[in-house]
Specification:
The chain is an all-beta fold. The chain has no helices and five strands. Strands 1-2-3 form a three-stranded antiparallel beta sheet, with no helix packed on it. It has a two-stranded antiparallel sheet with strand order 4-5. This is DOMON domain-containing protein. GO terms for molecular function: copper ion binding; dopamine beta-monooxygenase activity.
Amino acid sequence: MELVAVIPASTRDRHVKKHGDGQPLVDSSQDYVLLLGYENQTHTVLRFKRKLDTCDVAYDVPITKSFSLEYRGAYDRSLVR
């Protein structure tokens, strides 16, 4: 599961194919709601909500007590307008 956001306007639920090229694909099941998003000179903040178990077994992982979140960030200047 992957959440891709362009601050501050939009967010899309995306996923990466296991043996793909790493390009995030838009998930057919949009399970996240962006509550807040902003950037300053040192941080990007995203606050979102979703169900603990979205039932999207193909691309989402249920959030349980043993769930751990791994964050990977990237910045693409070409996305900034």
